[in-house]
Amino acid sequence: PPEIIEKVQRPPPLCRPAVSADQAPLECIHLMKECWSEQPEKRPTIDQVFDQFKGINKGRKTNIIDSMLRMLEQYSSNLEDLIRERTEELEIEKQKTDKLLTQMLPPSVAEALKMGTPVEPEYFEEVTLYFSDIVGFTTISAMSEPIEVVDLLNDLYTLFDAIIGSHDVYKVETIGDAYMVASGLPKRNGNRHAGEIANMSLDILSSVGTFKMRHMPEVPVRIRIGLHSG
């Protein structure tokens, strides 16, 4: 009723039911008053309420009360399990998203985007860039099925990715058969950038010498590499 809502919304006095001693056991009335205490730490937990009810009933069967309390207990337990499960799933998905984001963008840029802050352009004084593409890629593509082209690029760039992991470089992106790597950014490394890219290039050239296409193993794969340092 509206008048009760009004009393609850605007105390004092506090809106509490009046229960006389002949309407309920004194233990129940005392427990009820404990439950509506204004100080939360003085209110009994659901387990304590359950234990007190069992004591009040002295072992007698009280189906309604037992069923209600057990349902509340079970619901609370199930809810905790559900929240824990959903939290774990959310954390796993968050880790996947963060991993994908850091693979596509520099960590500093990825963190700024996640925080919703603008990404300011940054100037780098010394950087070396690496570009490479596959010689005759247009001809190879014309002689291959689309999935075979995808497998070729995936196999080749998986090989490249494993190599660059042992050098102080950052893969910028791949577009078609083009592979772009930089050193000296996003982490500055003094004047080591040229040497890092040069050594990486030699390692890539060496690995390509033994690389075979799945669908055309007899056709050698050659790559064309260009470097720019400044």
TrEMBL record:
Pfam families xrefs: Guanylate_cyc, HNOBA
Top-level taxon: Eukaryota
Topology versus the membrane: Single-pass type I membrane protein
SMART domains per the UniProt record, alphabetical: CYCc (SM00044)
Catalytic activity: GTP = 3',5'-cyclic GMP + diphosphate
The enzyme's E.C. designation: 4.6.1.2
Any one Gene Ontology BP term: intracellular signal transduction
Keywords attached to this entry: cGMP biosynthesis, Coiled coil, Disulfide bond, Glycoprotein, Lyase, Membrane, Nucleotide-binding, Signal, Transmembrane, Transmembrane helix
One function term, GO molecular function aspect: nucleotide binding
Record GO cellular component, one term: plasma membrane
Major localization class: membrane
Location of the Guanylate cyclase domain: 128-230
Protein name: guanylate cyclase
Organism, scientific name: Neopipo cinnamomea
Gene name tied to this protein: Gucy2e
